[in-house]
Design brief:
The complex is a heterodimer of chains A (292) and B (436). Chain A has twelve helices and two strands, in the order αββααααααααααα. With 292 residues, chain A is an all-alpha fold. Chain A has one domain: MetI-like (MetI-like fold), CATH 1.10.3720.10. In chain A, a hairpin with a 4-residue loop joins strand 1 and strand 2. The termini of chain A are far apart. The N terminus of chain B is likely disordered. Helix content of chain B is 46%, strand content 15%. Chain B starts with a helix and ends in a 6-residue tail after the last helix. Chain B is an alpha/beta fold. Chain B has two domains: 173 residues, 3-Layer(aba) Sandwich (D-Maltodextrin-Binding Protein, domain 2), CATH 3.40.190.10; 197 residues, Periplasmic binding protein-like II (D-Maltodextrin-Binding Protein, domain 2), CATH 3.40.190. In chain B, strand 10 and strand 11 form a beta hairpin. In chain B, the strands form six sheets. Chain B has a five-stranded mixed sheet, with helices on both faces. A four-stranded mixed sheet of chain B has the order 9-12-8-13. A two-stranded antiparallel sheet of chain B has the order 4-5. Classes of the chains: A mainly alpha (292), B alpha/beta (436). Chains A and B meet through helix 11 of A and helix 3, helix 17 and helix 18 of B.
Chain lengths: 292, 436
């Protein structure tokens, strides 16, 4: 084995060990905490399992139940609705914020900090604040708009209210990502355009927008996945109510596993949901590529 | 740098202290350590802590340390998952309504008759209904502590203005739905205050407890042959309760704290709630912060009888699979259970009706106010029907708490709410009980 190695192969082998060592911590963590649990979840989805004990292998029975389960489909619809309510606003408002911050010279870091600040809040704090603001009798929102509206118990307003809270909470991250994109656009482009007499919106349309498109596409994709993964906000703020109209898929999975002790079915929900998220992400990426 | 060194020094000293100190302590006195998990918070939590402290100071052989976990699903999930891997506590508080799920699922350790006898615990010392609920398939799994039924609280000032009190200032008996509705309406019309305060926001459990009580009062069955069988009776009762809110006799959509503050603040003539709010009223009366005199009666008889929902706290031992409890710990756990039973007068001050008869039937307990006002309820209590899916924070109650409040707020018709409830809950009835 050792006799016929070329110098290049020797070098590769010499680098192999350190590379493997450097990769090992991540690979071990990935294997232990992601890949193995994911594969185990897939196995569990083919069984009848309580929280802790697998009692029977049932093949695709859980999936057969799933496709006919109106609760699953309505939770999926609620998830899409939430994504619809958050993805575009989060990206659009993030872009406006990034443009604003980029424009300011004197108070730039102050403004950037103000926009980013909500993002550092833990979800418990964010939901507490949102809950206080939306209180029917004492909340500041009702103080401003008048009336005693119970926003989070209203079938039309529960998800939009959670979505608005989420936008306020996480828009700072998109702002930061888009700001980085803006700062990567070479200044010479703007200077050259200015020499040619371009100004204001023309500059944005002809330089900023095309140059920012790849970053925007990435931001949208990350946001889409994040929004589909919603759980904490609706779990804490509405518990999925009123009458399950704001119960998202991960919440349904949680209830199935922990309240109903049906971990096998919950695993099937998880696998189906993962397939949906992957499919949507690929679709969004393809659409983004065609657009760019 | 200097600071860090000092810190390291301090922690080394601490470490040394504890490793050297422990054996010394152990030699002086080695009490058996019992770990208990409870789901009791607020006044119940404080009262249980007092009982634990009293027990710990009453003897030196056993030391109980108690940990409070979040009520409801989080508590039961932790109890179940820890017990099956042998990492559970030695002792836990549970609801008797959850016993079929926990005992049937293999989460609890049965308590043998000989073990009970050795600890001086006798089944006949507990009320038969509660003792019966502590058993599953012929074996005993729990020691009942109390029952905490649904009762009707009233504000004497407002009820008096509405002409609902007798000469002695007590609520004149209310019998029948019309009479109860008229009482709520009377308070609303004569005083301008709410007739009824009841938790009714989404996720509320009160409506399930009331609805189940009313179904029992009119002898309608909830589940028969693995199907929901309440039929029209269920829709009618939900509609009747909803009418109190949609007609404005009670504010719609109050969450739990808002509903109790509505009553405690003098803003409602009546409150439908469990007896666990009694300590708050007692405390406010003692501190003269309650602006009115209050009274309590058992849930009124609206139909054939005065059935009222209840649940019971009880002590149970997790099975802790693969790690059976040591004999000295078992003795300690049983000694603690027996101690709390005998001292459950302290627990009665939490509004609960003790399950231990020598205490419950003692002159002191019979004279305890305001408990004596609703003591009669104990004869009419009904539990969630047996089933792994039933009971406190179990899946059926969780589903009911999602849909039934929708009818109270008028966002769903009672028929719609029950239809949605049944669609989700029927799946549970068809499923095999989980083994954990």
């Amino acid at each position: 084995m050792e006799t016929t190695l070329t110098p290049a192969a020797k070098k590769r082998r010499a680098e192999g060990l350190p590379a493997a060592l450097l990769l090992a911590p991540f690979s071990a963590a990935f294997l232990l905490f992601f890949l193995v649990p994911a594969l185990y979840t897939f196995y569990m989805s083919l069984t009848e399992s309580s929280l802790t004990r697998t009692s029977a292998f049932v093949g695709l029975a859980n999936y057969a139940t799933l496709v006919q389960d109106p609760s699953f489909w309505s939770s999926l619809w609620n998830t899409f609705y939430f994504a619809l309510l958050t993805v575009i606003p989060l990206t659009a408002i993030g872009l406006v914020m990034a443009l604003l911050v980029n424009r300011f010279v004197r108070f730039q870091s102050w403004l950037q900090g103000a926009f980013f600040l909500p993002y550092v809040l833990p979800i418990s704090v964010m939901t507490l604040i949102a809950d206080w603001m939306l209180q029917p009798s004492s909340g500041v929102i009702n103080h401003l708009v008048g009336g005693q509206h119970a926003w989070l118990s209203d079938v039309h307003w529960a998800l939009p209210a959670v979505a608005i809270g989420t936008v306020w909470w996480t828009v700072g991250f998109n702002m930061l990502m888009l700001l980085a994109g803006l700062r990567n656009i070479p200044n010479e482009l703007y200077e050259a355009a200015a020499l040619d007499g371009a100004r204001g919106f023309t500059l944005f349309r002809s330089i900023t927008w095309p140059a920012l498109k790849p970053v925007l596409g990435t931001a949208l994709l990350i946001q889409l996945i994040a929004s589909l993964k919603v759980f904490g906000q609706t779990y804490i703020l509405t518990s999925g109510g009123p009458y399950n109209t704001s119960r998202v898929t991960l919440h349904y999975m949680y209830e199935t596993a922990f309240t109903q002790s049906d971990a096998g079915y919950a695993a099937a929900v998880a696998m189906a949901f993962m397939a949906v998220v992957i499919a949507l992400s690929l679709l969004a990426r393809a659409a983004g590529r065609r657009g760019a | 740098m200097a600071q860090r060194r000092r810190f390291i020094g301090a922690s080394l000293a601490l470490g040394a202290g504890s490793t050297l100190g422990l054996p010394l302590l152990a030699r002086a006195q080695a009490p058996v350590e019992i770990r208990m998990w409870t789901l009791l918070s607020g006044g119940d939590g404080a009262r249980m802590r007092a009982l634990v402290d009293d027990f710990n100071t009453s003897q030196h052989a056993v030391r109980v340390t108690s940990t409070t976990l979040k009520w409801g699903e989080p508590f039961y999930t932790k109890l179940i998952t820890s017990s099956v891997v042998g990492a559970g506590p030695d002792l836990a508080t549970i609801h008797l309504s959850r016993l079929p799920n926990l005992a049937g699922g293999g989460v609890l350790r049965p308590i043998a008759d000989a073990e009970l006898a050795a600890a001086g615990l006798r089944g006949s010392d507990y009320f038969p209904r509660q003792w019966d609920k502590s058993r599953y398939e012929g074996r005993n799994y729990a020691i009942p502590l109390d029952m905490h039924p649904l009762v009707l609280y009233y504000n004497k000032a407002l009820a008096g203005k509405a002409g609902l009190l007798d000469g002695a200032g007590k609520l004149r008996p209310i019998v029948g739905y019309e009479a109860l509705t008229a009482a709520f309406a009377g308070v609303k019309e004569r005083t301008g205050k709410a007739g009824l305060a009841m938790e009714a926001s989404q996720g509320s459990y009160a409506i399930w407890r009331l609805w189940l009580s009313l179904l029992n009062q009119r002898k309608a069955t909830l589940i028969e042959n693995g199907r929901f069988a309440y039929g029209r009776a269920g829709v009618e009762e939900l509609a009747k309760v909803s009418a109190w809110f949609t007609r404005g006799y009670g504010p719609a959509g109050l969450d739990y704290p808002a509903s109790t503050s509505q009553f405690m603040g003098g803003g409602a003539g009546f409150m439908l709630n469990g007896v666990w709010e009694v300590p708050e009223l007692v405390r406010a009366t003692r501190q003269k912060t309650l602006g009115f005199e209050y009274g309590i009666v058992p849930l009124p008889r609206l139909y054939q009888d005065a059935s009222c929902w209840t649940d019971s706290h009880a002590f149970a031992m997790p099975a802790n699979e693969g790690k059976p409890i040591a004999p000295d710990k078992l003795r300690g756990v049983l000694a603690f259970m027996a101690y709390v039973s005998r001292h459950s007068m302290g627990w009665a001050e939490g509004g609960h009706v003790p399950a231990y008869r020598p205490v419950a039937e003692s002159a002191a307990a019979r004279a305890l106010m305001p408990n004596a006002l609703y003591a009669a309820a104990a004869g009419n209590v009904v539990y969630d029907p047996d089933g792994w899916y039933m009971g406190a924070a179990g899946p059926v109650e969780a589903m009911a708490s999602k849909f039934m409040p929708g009818a109270l707020s008028g966002q769903l018709t009672p028929a719609e709410a029950l239809d949605m409830f049944e669609k989700e809950a029927s799946r549970l009835l068809r499923k095999r009980p989980p083994r954990y």
